[in-house]
Each structure stands twice: as C-alpha cells, then as structure tokens.
Amino acid sequence: MSSPIFNRILLKLSGEILAGEQGFGIDPSVVLQLVSEIKVVSDLGVQVGIVIGGGNIIRGAQAGAQGMDRASGDYMGMLATAMNALALQDSLEQAGVDTRVLSAIEMRQIAEPYIRRRAVRHLEKNRVVIFACGTGNPYFTTDTAASLRAMEISADILLKGTKVGKVYDSDPVTNPQATPYDQISYLEVLQKQLKVMDAAAISLCMDNNLPLVVFNINTADNLRKVVLGEKVGTVVGEIAHKRSE
Q1: Are the beta carbons of 149 and 201 closer than 8 angstroms?
Q2: 197 lies in a domain?
Q3: DSSP labels for 78-117?
Q4: 71 belongs to a structural domain
C-alpha cells in the first residue's frame, strides 16, 4: 500500500455535510460514513485536526440578516459547532479512535479550552483533534478558523470536504456548462471571486503558502486518496511537502 504524503492535515467540514439529505440537524448515517473515512486516514499514521461548521443548526450571518444582532447570531453559530463536534467525537470514539474536542469558547464540562501547544501534543499522540467554536470571535467564519488552526498546528495541508468534486468557474448547480479546475492559484480564486472559502481564509492561506485541496467528502475513499497524493478534487496553491520517513 502507498504511504501518506502528509504528516498532519487539517480537515474542514461544513455543518451542512452532517445534515445529509434531510438538510437540517445531524444525520447519524452521514456521521458514521465520515468517521469511517477519518479512521482509515488516522490508522495510516496521519495526524488529523478537524474544524467543523454549524450551518446545519444555525448560521450567524443569516440570523444577522433576519434582524438578530450579528455578534449574537455568530455566537449561537459557534455553539452549534460545539454540538456537531461532540456528535463527531462520540462516533469516532465508538469506532475506537481516540479523540479530543478543543473549544475556542471555554466550556470545561464538555470540551478542553483551545491551547495551541495542547492541540499539537494531542496530535503527536495520534489523537484526532476537533476544533469547536471557530476562532471564538464573531464576524469570523469557520473557513477562517480552519485556515488559522491549520497554520497554528503546522498542518502540511488544508483539506476542505464539500458536496462537490472540484472548484468550478461558476455554480455547477445553476450552470451545467461550469468548468472545473484541477489546480488554481489563490490569487486567481480571489480575482475571480470563486466561492471556495471566504476571502480572509484564502488570503491567510496564500500569505503562508498553505496548500488547499477541495474535494467531495461524500465520495467513499476520497479522503484516503487525497492523503496518499492521488489526484482528487482541486488543488489550490502548490503541494510541495513530502512525508518524511
């Protein structure tokens, strides 16, 4: 079997992924599928960090648009990510994967407070680390949190698991003629205003030369293929790191 080309990854999952076809809440069958994918990669010796969104429960920006104070809506969204993190942790541990949830908002009864050195130590012990509550600050998305945490833990790559297989030049749902990219630069993503991640997250990755792969997490075995270096999804930036033996 091929060896992983990355030592440490940061996987970004949207809350909507957990909802599955039901569109809201948490679909246990989807969580079990995600767990099986993550376990395979962890068993290969890859250190896995995960940032998860909360859009399957509430989105702060939408709450703000509907008249709620934006900061309050964002804090509610952060709490939603904590619920998703606990659901994912429970399923991972039932599958035999040692897991820790670290929260940017302190809630000691259910999660450890986020401390960078502690997170790195957990990863070094081959524990899957789930980062909850985004950055802990309103007005910052979980995409930005994913970029930030990836930098802080010195991840080799940021992986964004989505419902689509690649980055397209336009929305493939509304435009059947949309053209997919196999590889694209961060600057092109910003210039073309492609909806890969928000501009702050993209800029953070670009400034720190952190490569990003966008791929369909719902396709079985895709996560393993990505960490083995197979061509899956769209590469944003340049992948230069090779796993040291």
Answers
A1: no
A2: yes
A3: HHHHHHHHHHHHHHHHHTT--EEEEESS--TTTSEEP-HH
A4: yes
How many Å from the N-terminal Cα to the C-terminal Cα in the chain? 15
Q: Are 138 and 74 in contact (CB under 8 A)?
A: yes
AA identity, residue 127: R
Q: How confident is the model at residue 145 (pLDDT cuts 50, 70, 90)?
A: very high
CA atoms within 13 A on the CB side of 186: 20
**CATH number of the structural domain spanning residue 40:** 3.40.1160.10
Distance CA 128, CA 244 (A): 20
- What is the rounded CA–CA span in Å between residue 209 and residue 224? 23
pLDDT digits (tens, 9 = 90+) for 6-62: 999 999 999 999 999 888 999 999 999 999 999 999 999 999 999 999 999 987 667
Question: Tens digits of per-residue pLDDT, 180-226?
Answer: 999 999 999 999 999 899 999 999 999 999 999 999 999 999 999 99
- Tally of domains in the chain: 1
Range of the domain at 141: 8-236
CB 119 within 8 A of CB 94: no
